[in-house]
Design brief:
Oligomer: single chain
Order of helices and strands: HHHEEHHHHHHHHHHHHHHHH
Number of strands: 2
Protein name: K-stimulated pyrophosphate-energized sodium pump protein
Distance between the termini: 74 Å
Strand order of the largest sheet: 1-2
Length: about 350
């Protein structure tokens, strides 16, 4: 009896949220001048983390007792997580919202909202119209791309659960993957390739490559590994947030040993090399340059010494960097000498203690 009451409270709460979302979408549709702001506010609302009071209502089975939930890897549960599950269990509840979003397709944040609320619904319902299915699946990929970039720009993982669902429950599950058109499947795999490093899923790369769809231009580009590495290289060139770029450069070492075409290998090498020198067009920081050198030397050990010599000559073209380079070199030498002396002192002290004890 208590469980039924709790379930009723949860459904009532989610239905109330649905009504609020519907009202805001209707206001956006009726007010062109305020449309973008209203959609942006709605997107921010559904991306919020569920607070304790709402979590009690949505997830509890008994009054005051919270049942286990499918939170993200960091324990975070957002409103779009519970709403996406709700629209799978009760498709009719989200039908009106979906109709309103379709009318707002071309507006900013419409695809964001759709991808958050209906990413599970798309793979659970049966849609017989191929044109509608292609539109929905393309909007999902576009919206997911936009929200993942928001995570990158803010260096957060608020939408990690969306990425994990698309990777583990769709890309690696043929029963879900085959529900969307082939073109959407290809776009989805390219999307996952670009963000798999950011969301710490490098252990799934091998499985992802095994499931990679066939591309019509594969005879020119290469196999799945080539498509994957090309997307990663392009993604690196777009990253402007230093912690995220450093994260990518540390994770990219898993690519060692992949069989790539010469053009793909050269593309990756050129991309990494562009981060190793100061000045335009990238203006990488010292930490980024060192991380890029580490990744480059690890992935392409052949020719690393000539590369460093050539880089040294190019550094001479930037005389304004000489003072900082000399200072960093001196400090590195001082630290190395200091650490060596400390190791000698402590090792000698340990030997003296061992002799006394014996």
């Amino acid at each position: 009896m208590v469980e039924a009451s709790s379930s009723h409270r949860s459904s009532a709460y989610l239905n109330a949220l649905t009504q609020e979302i519907e009202k805001k979408l209707q206001r956006a549709l009726a007010s062109p001048s305020q449309r973008r702001n209203l959609l942006q506010e709605l997107f921010a609302d559904i991306a919020l983390e569920v607070d304790d009071r709402a979590r009690d209502i949505i997830l509890s089975r008994e009054e005051g007792v919270i049942c286990p939930a499918k939170d993200g890897s960091d324990g975070r549960l957002c409103f779009y997580d519970v709403l996406a599950d709700h629209y799978v269990r009760m498709p009719e509840s989200g039908k009106r919202i979906l109709d309103l979003i379709v009318q707002l397709w071309s507006q900013s944040f419409a695809s964001h909202i759709y991808s958050l609320l209906f990413h599970k619904w798309l793979f659970e319902v049966q849609l017989d119209n191929n044109e509608v299915l292609l539109r929905y699946s393309s909007a999902l990929v576009q919206g997911a791309t936009n929200v993942f970039w928001i995570d990158i720009q803010t260096n957060t993982m608020r939408f990690q659960s969306l990425f994990q669902y698309l990777l583990e429950e769709v890309a690696l599950e043929s029963k879900h993957l085959n529900k969307i058109p082939v073109q959407a499947q290809r776009d989805l795999y390219l999307l996952l390739s670009r963000f798999i490093f950011f969301y710490n899923s490098v252990d799934k790369i091998e499985s992802l490559l095994k499931q990679f769809p066939v591309f019509p231009n594969s005879f020119l580009v290469g196999g799945p590994a080539d498509f994957f590495v090309i997307e990663v290289a392009d993604q690196l060139q777009k990253l402007k947030v230093e912690p995220v770029l450093l994260h990518y450069l540390s994770q990219i070492k898993v690519l060692r040993g992949m069989e790539l075409r010469m053009t793909t290998s050269t593309r990756l090498k050129t991309c990494l090399y562009s981060f190793t020198s100061p000045g335009g067009p990238m203006y990488p920081t010292r930490a980024v340059r060192h991380a890029a050198w580490d990744a480059l030397d690890f992935l392409f050990p052949v020719g690393q010494y000539p590369r460093h010599v050539i880089s040294l000559f190019f550094r001479l073209l930037y005389p304004w960097y000489w003072p900082s380079s000399c200072w960093n070199f001196i400090m590195s030498c001082v630290k190395a000498v200091l650490y060596t002396l400390l190791r000698l002192v402590f090792s000698g002290w340990e030997k003296v203690r061992e002799q006394k004890n014996s």
